[in-house]
Amino acid sequence: MNIQETIQNLREELNQHNHNYYVLDNATISDFEFDQKLKQLQELENQNPEYFDENSPTQRVGGTITKNFKTIPHQYRMYSLDNSYSKEDLIDWENKMQRVLGNVNLEYTCELKYDGASISITYENGKLLRAVTRGDGFQGDDVTNNVKTIKSIPLKLKGNYPENFDIRGEIVLPFAGFEKMNQELIEIGETPYSNPRNTASGSLKLQDSAETAKRPLECLLYFITGKNLPFNNQFDSLKSARDWGFKAPKESKLAKNLDAVFEFIDYWDVHRHQLPYETDGVVVKVNSFQHQEELGYTAKSPRWAMAYKFKSEQVFTKLNSISYQVGRTGSITPVANLQPVQLAGTIVKRASLHNADQIEKLDIRVNDTVFVEKGGEIIPKIIAVDLEKRPENSEPTVYITNCPECETLLVRNEGEANHYCPNFYGCPPQIIGRIQHYISRKAMDIEGLGGETVALLYNNNLVKNYADLYELKVSDILPLERMAQKSAENLVNGVEESKKIPFENVLFALGIRFVGETVAKKLARHYKNIDNLSKASVMELVLVDEIGERIAQSVVDFFSNHENVSIINRLKNFGVQFEIKEVVNLNATNKLEGKIFVVSGVFEKFSRDDLKKAIEDNGGKVGSSISSKTDFVIAGENMGPAKLEKANQLGVKIIDESKFLELINEN
Ligand code: AMP
Ligand code: ZN
Questions:
Q1: Residue 166: beta bridge partners?
Q2: Does the pLDDT of residue 278 top 90, yes or no?
Q3: Any residues with CB less than 8 A from the CB of 622 and at least 6 apart, and which?
């Protein structure tokens, strides 16, 4: 096999794995194996730039920067849909069509109406050529580089596809991914996104496609337009789309008549809440293309399709009061306290008002009658005020000027939506929130201690910061409510155990603003210990990969505060990890006796010499090249493709460094 064929085969194999995983939800290899193959391909492509292909699976990770998105005309216009709100509307629609077509029996394809960002993708000779946003329907923005990072969109097609066609669909952000993104933002003190739809369309317009690649976007495709299409109705077109490798919604159904359409609507009106992404209705399309052609288009939309909008779940209720919550980073969130009301199957008592601008925009006042809506988000929102029902003595809402918890004057930085309380060390919810963050799973992961207990400890003057946790004694905790001997011991043991948590988690746990999990890892690996980090200037910090000025400034501010420094010194004395530990197993064993290892690539946890030493310390041998005698290849980043191929040929086991650690650490 020559290089070109090897590259080609790898691309096809990886495309198939992407398809299995993202379209069929059915992975057949492990993530590790996938990554190894992708790395192998990347290496081969780097070494043989003449075989570059912009549609190679290696291009999915993104990295291209687009400063201005080019406007591109659609080769086929993107129409809107007419809306209907009742079954009567649909009956009228059918009657109208039957007047045009004669009294034929009409069949329909029923689809869900996904709420995301619409996209039109052009394929030429089976390759993704271009992806354009809807724009005004005649022309949109070229977002090809960003769209290519969405793994469920094929870059190359399979089977018998037409030479040139456009396929349209909706790019959506599933709730789970959206919540996760927001969780991460909240953790580092940023403002969360308001809803999945806007976040999805915003993701298409990011300048750095590597950022788009990180977002868990999906694309559902439902409409093909072009010449010489090998089907003559909508339902079959979805099937073809699937055969060519697209994710065409599997909920779609062929309905023999309007009654069957109504059944579909009734079913999804209830069950749509269980779908992983947001839907706001059903799209009913006349199935036969011949009928579609005869019906044609109005100036705005096809006459052969109709969106049926689900009744949005909205109710009127009264605003009893507005309260203000203080978050871990001091950020203030206004909350509407409502007259409890039934909405979308739950009782709603509260709604978020987001910030002062939102209150001003709605001109919302206590005792107003408000319109509450529940979209896909968990917290309902207020969308309007009924001004006619406003009481006469009503007064405009005045946003608070001082912290509701500690009275400190609030500040609002330019460009930020939220006010915040700057009393970092004296404001109770900030102190409690910071300790709760410290003990959380991704941070110090302290077992035996929960968020409520933290509040209890604080309110009983037992802890004022996270360093105080390490001085807690069983006898201090026992007098507290609901604290038995056993749970008090668990708490103290959990705190003790946290001294083993690695530096990168400790750094995240400190709760430095804008320092999330990934940033903490980057900083920990770069600076190796807290002393180096605490001495770094903004200028030095921004030189670290992915560290921007805002993060850098926040780190410098954190370490220039005496209180922070003294807390860290106390933690150090208690034995908390403030430097990266080399993970070499010092207790030599003979666990690897008789085994021959070959080491290839670059490692995260070891230097190559340390890794070799660890093999030998544990009784193994290090070989210089792969042969039939080799038992294991330990593969790191950038392992050479030739080695990988050889190992595969000889059937030698390939493991990563964590697997290796398991080998020497297992009993
Ligand atoms: P509207 O924006 O209300 O005019 O509705 C038209 C939009 O609905 C289209 O531009 C698509 O983005 C979106 N849409 C979502 N799901 C579907 C579907 N299954 N078929 C057609 N359009 C859909
Ligand atoms: Zn405060």
A1: 122, 225
A2: no
A3: 596, 597, 598, 599, 612, 615, 616
Pull the structure tokens for residue 209.
């496609």
For tokens 């005020």, what's the residue?
385
Write down the pLDDT at residue 112.
Answer: 96
| Of 581, 327, 362, 344, the residue nearest 437 (C-alpha) | 327
Q: How confident is the model at residue 582, as a pLDDT?
A: 60
Indicate whether 631 pLDDT > 70: yes
H-helix or E-strand spanning residue 181: helix 175-187
Listed residue (13, 468, 625, 232) closest to 460, CA to CA: 468
Question: pLDDT at position 117, please?
Answer: 95
Cα dist from 235 to 110, 190, 241, 262, 593, whole Å: 9, 44, 10, 18, 62
Mean pLDDT, rounded, of the chain: 90
The DSSP bridge partners found for residue 415 are none
What are the two backbone dihedrals, phi and then psi, of residue 321, each rounded to the nearest 5 degrees?
Answer: -165, 165
> How confident is the model over 617-632, as a mean pLDDT?
87
- Our answer on whether the CB atom of 113 is closer than 6 Å to any ligand 1 atom is yes
Q: What local confidence, expressed as pLDDT, does residue 378 receive?
A: 59
Best of 170, 224, 264, 275 for a ligand 1 pocket test (most atoms within 8 Å of beta carbon): 170
Of 79, 108, 113, the residue with max ligand 1 atoms within 8 A of its CB, to mutate for a pocket test, comes to: 113
Q: Which residue has the tokens 């807690």?
A: 472
pLDDT band at 587 (very low <50, low <70, confident <90, very high): low
Give the mean pLDDT of 268-279. 86
Note whether 515 and 188 are within 8 A (CB): yes
Atom of ligand 1 nearest to the CA of 134: 10
The helix (H) or strand (E) run that includes residue 384 is strand 381-385
Cα–Cα dist 584/664, whole Å:
10
CA 182, CA 195: separation in Å to the nearest integer? Answer: 10
Average pLDDT over residues 426-430: 94
Helix axes 451-459, 428-439, angle to 10 degrees: 140
Cα torsion at 270, 271, 273, 275 (round to 10°)? Answer: -160
pLDDT band at 667 (very low <50, low <70, confident <90, very high): low
Residue among 346, 357, 350 at smallest CA distance from 322: 350
**Total Cβ atoms within 10 A of residue 238:** 23
Report how far apart, in Å, the C-alpha atoms of 561 and of each of 89, 423, 585, 634 are.
66, 13, 37, 44
Centre of ligand 1 to C-alpha 113, Å, is: 6
Whole-angstrom Cα distance, residue 536 to residue 523? 11
Compute the distance between CA of residue 491 and CA of residue 510 in angstroms, rounded to an integer. 20
pLDDT-derived band at 238 (thresholds 50, 70, 90) equals: very high
Compute CA distances 11 → 89, 216, 423, whole Å: 50, 22, 55
113 is catalytic: yes
Give the number of other CB atoms < 10 A from CB of residue 259: 10
| Protein residue with its CA nearest to atom 2 in ligand 1 | 80
pLDDT tens, position by position, 62-75: 777 888 899 999 99
What is the Å distance from ligand 1's center to 571 Cα? 56
What is the whole-number distance in angstroms between the Cα of residue 162 and the centre of ligand 2? 63
Cα angle vertex 657, ends 655, 663, to 5°? 75
> 173: closest CA among 275, 325, 294?
275
